[in-house]
Predict the structure.
Amino acid sequence: MSDAPQPMPEPDRAMPDGSDLGASLGTDFLHLEDLLTDAERELRDGVRAWCDAEVVAAAQEWWEAARFPAEMLPGYAATRVAGAAIQGYGCAGVSAVAEGMMCAELARGDGSIATFNAVHSGLAMTSVHLLGDDEQRERWLPSMARVETIGAVALTEPTHGSDVVSLETTARRDGEEWVLDGAKRWIGNGSVADLVVVWARDDDGDVGGFVVESPQGTDGWDAQVIEGKISNRGVWQAHIRLDGVRVPAGNRLAGARTFADTNKVLAKSRQTVAWEALGHAVAAYEGALTYALRRQQFGRPLAKNQLIQDDLARMVTLITSMQLMCVRMSQLEDEGRCTIEHAAMTKLHTTTAAREVVAIARDMLGGNGILLDHHVARHFADLEAVYTYEGSRTVQSLLVGRAVTGTSAFR
């Protein structure tokens, strides 16, 4: 049999009563999608359908070329995943659970598209929604929901990643404007965004979020795409220099006064990333299962071997544990009870578990596991970014450790 990618044959999933195992016992053994309303399920299925029809077929090309697929933005906008859990302002207004499942579907399709969404929706729209006043929300959120305005958040600095609380970028008040100076690094969408929330310290040493509109044409703004990545190659991160960038006084987010306000955004965005890890794991599992069912070795499909079935069982069990944590985290968010520690624990588990799942999948495909043709390699590589961004595994662990001991080990 050729090693080239082939359509997946329909597996024999008939149950003793004649029913079909189907998707619910594929990667949803505990029927968690029953938690969604019909309208939410329709939106979730719409994301999956768009990814299956448009994203998966093209992802290999833009990943290999390290090209940002701007042509995908209209389709992305049509899914309504941008700001999906925000009520009003043209957003879908779904539950946090439904939004999470939608984000997982994006990652199942392609990590670069999912990361674009995590920045635009999970960081930028969340910053405006949580920390902006009514006027600021009305000014920016509707066009962001339509993806007419692309958002980004500039927090990480060249010398401050995990210790970003030490940020050195400054905001100096000059009449009716703020003047921003400093440098930012690893800023997703930073070279293409129409709106960037820049985090900086003001004259009093307080932390604030300052919205730079049309940054690419703003004096003093220089954004250079970071090259040479082995992960999420279809979405661009930028190194940004700010040299006297001026923004109107009214562009400081009204509710952004301390780093505790920044953490409100991070607590929400880490929820998105936790769901992303789940999506990557599902994609790798599906790719491995497809391969095991069709790949013939020693006269029979790989899937008939005990070791392969053991690996598949391990993968789907890890996926189920990830789903349970993600769902409970998002339920707490819907109840207004999700803390940064809840998000940290969930991201800690999902990214670690997903790393194991994609590694098993890559190994199961043997030499073919390093080829983009079978999709597993792309998710294997992309997960390395998810494992690190929005706080590495160690940072998440220390947040949980602080919660259980009452003592911070950060300094």
Remarks:
- Strands lie at 151-154, 170-174, 177-188, 195-201, 207-213, 221-225, 237-248, 296-297, 300-301.
- The CA atoms of residues 220 and 243 lie 5 Å apart.
- Residues 259-294 form the longest helix (36 residues).
